[in-house]
Specification:
Elements lengths: L2 H4 L7 H25 L5 H12 L2
Helix pairs in contact: 2-3
């Protein structure tokens, strides 16, 4: 048997990759909203409402 036949291929779990991608996008969106709040373009209430919408709460 050849050495490359003994190695196991590492499988990629596409659902984990997708979930991580969604998580990164969600985090980025919340950070952008926080920046808008910090600069005064969003009120605390508007920020909280939009954050809840993004999180599905």
């Amino acid at each position: 048997m050849y050495f490359w036949q003994k190695r196991k291929k590492k499988s990629i779990n596409t659902s984990e990759v997708f979930a991580e991608s969604i998580s990164d996008e969600l985090t980025d969106q919340i950070k952008k909203l926080a920046d808008l709040r910090d600069t005064g373009l969003l009120t605390e209430e508007e920020f909280a409402l939009k954050k809840k919408q993004l999180l599905g709460i």
